[in-house]
Design goal:
Fumarylacetoacetate hydrolase, domain 2, about 20% helix, about 425 residues, homodimer, alpha+beta, five-stranded antiparallel beta sheet, SH3 type barrels
């Protein structure tokens, strides 16, 4: 395996590069040759999950490519023949990049190796529609940030004090909390409405019952590609080299359970029933052309949170809601990841500054991504202002919060010239409480 | 492997049972034949970590016992030849109990098998003093509760309002939050004083620096022995069958970092730099004789948190502090686990009631265990009332919070008739910030 240089990597990002897989060349396709996101899949024919890469409307089986001698790794072990990406990711950034360069070459229009070998192609490719997609990584730890200024301000205004909506610590650090890793599920997994304690305004004591204010949180999450040892912080300037890639993340939230339980130690049961992530991890390398400046930070952060250059990414995001049986989904929010106040690099620097160790596969949620306008908020709580202003759905009906049978979809993509680097979707249908 | 019945288990708890390992028969020994706690160890001669049981001043190597055909399991795989207990624990409660019964018999005074076979004994036993003890389980998830009424009241009085020290939700549910599993370390691991943001009273903005209010929290933690699937809560009456055993836990806390960061999502960097647990897991079976009634709960908890019978355990606990170079440690707190308001069963029922899944090896901290008297508080924050009343140490000097070089030790035991079931110790020495 040769270590790719800068121009090898740049070539994988060339907007003019096309694939011999026609569907990948469609301008509206999430998975063009410039993307090459990693995931884990299985098929009816081969139930053993293995690593794949999405290209057009196909999944390329990397375990099969490696077995065929077409994908070189630094060691002989076929780390693609695993049910999670962790062992591959642990091989390090040079390897991620080498595999990206090799795949981009194999899939390029002018490369005959796979293109002209029907037997090999049939072993390597599966239609995306026929693949069962699994959680792409084993997640040792899940942390959720709270890094959208608009979101924090909206929530503070609703639940605390509209005049002092943003708490004083918010502008000084990327506030975060530990989430529950065990209940992170892959897109498509049904989400059961949780039961819990609800404190109703007209009753002195809480009652037990099904959540009445079920909500989503539109987020992205980044996956740790290289951990750090206990006691050895990651500097802000080095942090992006520790990130493997990004997924969409829906931090399902039971607002009524949350409001009663969260003081003083933060949300717990209101979040731990499910967190959905999209199955394809879009690498930071694929996102490089979409790097933009982060918002101006005022006051200037403390030294350990400073970095030069651009560390935000221009990722268009939307949320769709489709009631059970409805033919069409309604887009209920449109926003962009670039609005986030704190960058991923700052989040990781803050996470580790006290010495906390991270591990390959750790998931770091961005926090709800709300934009500056009323239709760019990343939760129903904000979009409907706690159900005071219900949303009208295109298929009829209104929503304050989520109803049973509703299908919630997050989508995201970076718009290039004539192509887009997409995240696919992050979907969940809500099923009734037990 | 035969499944032990009630009388087999009772026999392992017989106070009159003695071991042919003399040190185990000492009334002050933590590890008599009635205890048989599980851990993971390695030795200078054999660096590969494996499962052991503490008995007197010795460790019995269960991998070696199994290899010698003296310890039967339901399948042939030697799950003791692993660097964590998870695979053994996953075999289920019948197996834990069978192994306990088999070990109790092998180690009993009247059993000749090991007692009279010097060659075998030399393969199986290591002096505790010569064993390197490892983290006993891989911990997929770590949750920390807040279940001592005295602790919650003390903290509320100090930081919020002495007149309304206990928040209204506290009496209705075992409040908890997700901790950071990656930084749970085994007793003996040095603890580095964390850096972080400190908000000093005389400055408008926070400064970055080493924690000035480093503290301990005296806790126990229980280890999940049988998990539950997502969406399938564990009923309160069934919860104890899901618990493998208990360790001592020191939830190191940076009070100044905590006070600035914890609103509104709870503590994060103030806790994630280290959590120390004791290396020996004392099984719930060994604790059975020390079961006592929990405190009366008023108001009566909601239905899902109710159980009949006794679900507290009489575990004496103490905290010792030894400054660097001092010959003697000072006992700075004495309390008892039986004071805890919420039981472990209630904690686990609440943890899963919304559908959250748990996994074998999950660690659930009790929360700081403070008793009703001023010398029974489980943190320096409470013992010194935020450094207002410094403690005098026997070796000279005083402490408001922890200083570099201080060695903090938690100890715990259940007092039987002529023996005690001990937890060993949970120790950490604080080293200076980087």
């Amino acid at each position: 395996m040769s270590i790719p240089n800068h121009s090898d990597l740049q070539a994988t990002l060339d907007p003019a590069r096309k694939s011999w897989i026609d569907s990948a060349n469609d301008a509206a396709c999430d998975f063009p040759i410039q993307n090459l996101p990693f995931g884990v899949f299985s098929t009816a024919q081969q139930a053993q999950a293995r690593v794949g890469v999405a290209i057009g409307d196909q999944v390329a089986d990397l375990a099969a490519l490696h077995a065929a001698g077409l994908l070189r790794l630094p060691a002989d072990t076929n780390v693609f023949a695993r049910s999670a990406l962790n062992d591959f990711i642990a091989l390090g950034r040079d390897t991620w990049r080498s595999v990206r360069v090799q795949l981009s070459s194999l899939l390029a229009k002018e490369t005959a190796t796979l293109r002209d070998d029907a037997a090999l192609r049939s072993r390597v490719f599966t239609k995306l529609a026929d693949a069962k997609l699994h959680l792409p990584v084993d997640i040792p730890g899940y942390t959720d940030f709270y890094s959208s200024k608009e979101h924090a301000t909206n929530v503070g205004a609703m639940f605390r004090d509209p005049k002092n909506a943003l708490l004083p610590n918010w502008s000084e650090m990327p506030i975060c909390y530990n989430g529950r890793a065990s209940s992170v599920v892959v897109s498509g997994t049904p989400v059961r409405r949780p039961n819990g304690q609800l404190k109703l305004p007209d009753q002195e004591r809480p009652v037990f019952g099904a959540c009445r204010k079920l909500d989503i949180e539109l987020e992205t999450g980044f996956i740790i590609g290289r951990g750090n040892a206990l006691g050895e912080p990651i500097a802000c300037k080095d942090a992006e080299a520790h990130i493997f890639g990004i997924v969409l993340l829906n931090d399902w939230s039971a607002r009524d359970i949350q409001q009663w339980e969260y003081v003083p130690l933060g949300p717990f049961n209101s979040k731990s029933f499910a967190t959905t992530i999209s199955p394809w991890i879009v690498t930071l390398d694929a996102l490089e052309p979409f790097r933009v400046a982060q918002p101006v930070q005022e006051p200037q952060p403390l030294e350990y949170l400073r970095h030069s250059g651009e560390h935000a990414f221009d990722i268009a995001l939307e949320v769709l809601l489709r009631p059970e049986g409805a033919a069409e989904a309604t887009t209920i929010a449109r926003t962009n990841f670039k609005h986030m106040y704190w960058t991923m690099a700052q989040q990781l620097a803050h996470h580790t500054v006290g010495g906390c160790n991270t591990r390959v596969g750790d998931l770091m949620g961005s926090g709800t991504i709300s934009g500056p306008t009323d239709d760019s908020f990343g939760s129903l709580l904000e979009l409907t202002w706690n159900a005071k202003n219900p949303l009208s759905l295109g298929s009829g009906g209104t929503r304050g919060f989520i109803e049973d049978g509703d299908e919630l979809t997050l989508a995201g993509w970076c718009q290039g010239e004539g192509y887009r680097v997409g995240f696919g979707v992050c979907v969940g249908v809500v099923v009734p409480a037990i």
